[in-house]
């Protein structure tokens, strides 16, 4: 880690920050694409909406996963970004994470590009409700189910062999099918979030990417837009990213350790 180079590149410019799964691994939430992660094929939006069996499988695994996901606590990176925001050193925060840990740490005005796992949306009437409330309903419908043991996977998923006995809950308002309020693979990011993110890039003095391999276009396009504007781009990530060629500086390391090394962390 070349600390001097970091300060040369960023100077006293304020940061627009884009975060990915690598920020939350320090909170015990696994990453799809970290260098140590096994390859995974998460359920796509198309699979989810196609059959009741797919939704049953999703909700059974997510029900067990939520019990663990909700216990995750913000870490040094989340806290550092909160104090940087308070000190006026950020111009915005866009996250690809759905865990809500930036908000839990106290961050304001976060753009949750891929939604929030602690919210639920009805596919029929589009009402958004709380995941905690759904969890209680699912627990009542499936007593003891959440004590099942399986490998903890990304996005609050737990690997379970057989989910055929799980009872799924419906929308209390209209009886429609419920989906977590997150953008699945194969689904588009809602347009207003994309536009608000581009607006932040258009005004940005620098872009700092923390813990994302930028494998999906939903995040990479903002790095491309920043590159087009010619502002400094710093990428901190373990392993290569699809934005490495666009970066002014690439740091191949963890987020918390890097923020500590460059002297901005609060812990
Ligand atoms: Zn509904």
Provide an overview of this structure.
The protein is an alpha/beta fold. It has a single domain, classed as Rossmann fold (3-Layer(aba) Sandwich), CATH 3.40.50. Helix content is 34%, strand content 17%. The chain is built from 9 helices and 11 strands. The strands form 3 sheets. Strands 3-2-1-9-10-11 form a 6-stranded parallel β-sheet, with helices on both faces. It is elongated, with a radius of gyration of 19 Å. It binds zinc ion (ZN). The site of zinc ion has 8 residues, from loops.
Sum this structure up briefly.
This is NAD-dependent protein deacetylase. The chain is an alpha/beta fold and 267 residues long.
Briefly note the structural class of the backbone. alpha/beta
Q: What is the second-level CATH architecture?
A: 3-Layer(aba) Sandwich
Work out the helix count: 9
For this structure, the CATH topology is Rossmann fold
Quote the beta fraction: 15-25%
CATH class categorisation: Alpha Beta
Give the SSE string: HEHHHEHEEEHEEEHEHEEH
The ligands bound in this entry are: zinc ion
Helix fraction by DSSP (H/I, runs of at least 4): 25-40%
| Overall strand count | 11
**Order of strands across the biggest sheet?**
3-2-1-9-10-11
Find the CATH superfamily. Answer: TPP-binding domain
What general form does the structure show?
elongated
Low-confidence parts lasting 5 or more residues at pLDDT below 50?
A: none
Biggest β-sheet strands, sense, barrel: 6 strands, parallel
How far from one another are the termini? 18 Å
Radius of gyration: 19 Å
Function: NAD-dependent protein deacetylase which modulates the activities of several enzymes which are inactive in their acetylated form.
Binding site for NAD(+): 20-40, 96-99, 211-213, 237-239, 255
Domain Deacetylase sirtuin-type: 1-267
Organism: Aeromicrobium wangtongii
């Amino acid at each position: 880690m070349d600390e001097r180079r970091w300060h040369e590149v960023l100077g006293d410019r304020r940061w627009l920050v884009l975060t990915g799964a690598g920020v939350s691994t320090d909170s015990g939430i696994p990453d799809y694409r970290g260098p140590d992660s096994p390859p995974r094929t998460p359920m796509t939006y198309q699979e989810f909406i196609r059959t009741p069996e797919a939704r049953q499988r999703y909700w059974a695994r997510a029900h067990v996963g939520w019990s663990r996901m909700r216990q995750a606590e913000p870490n040094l990176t989340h806290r550092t970004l909160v104090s940087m925001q308070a000190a006026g050193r950020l111009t915005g925060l866009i996250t690809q994470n759905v865990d809500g840990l930036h908000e839990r740490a106290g961050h304001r005005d976060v753009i949750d590009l891929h939604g929030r796992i602690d919210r639920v949306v009805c596919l029929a009437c589009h009402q958004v409700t709380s995941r905690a409330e759904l969890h209680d309903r699912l627990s009542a419908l499936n007593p003891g189910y959440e004590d099942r043991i399986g490998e903890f996977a990304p996005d609050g998923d737990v690997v379970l062999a057989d989910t055929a006995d799980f009872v799924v809950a419906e929308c209390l308002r209209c009886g429609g099918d419920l989906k977590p309020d997150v953008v699945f693979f194969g689904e588009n990011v809602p347009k207003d979030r994309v536009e608000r993110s581009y607006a932040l890039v258009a005004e940005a003095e620098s872009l700092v990417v923390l813990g994302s391999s930028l494998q999906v276009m939903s995040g990479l396009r903002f790095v491309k837009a920043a590159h087009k504007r010619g502002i400094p781009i710093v990428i901190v990530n373990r392993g290569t990213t699809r934005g490495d060629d666009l970066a002014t500086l690439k740091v191949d390391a963890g987020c918390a350790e890097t923020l500590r090394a460059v002297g901005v962390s609060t812990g």
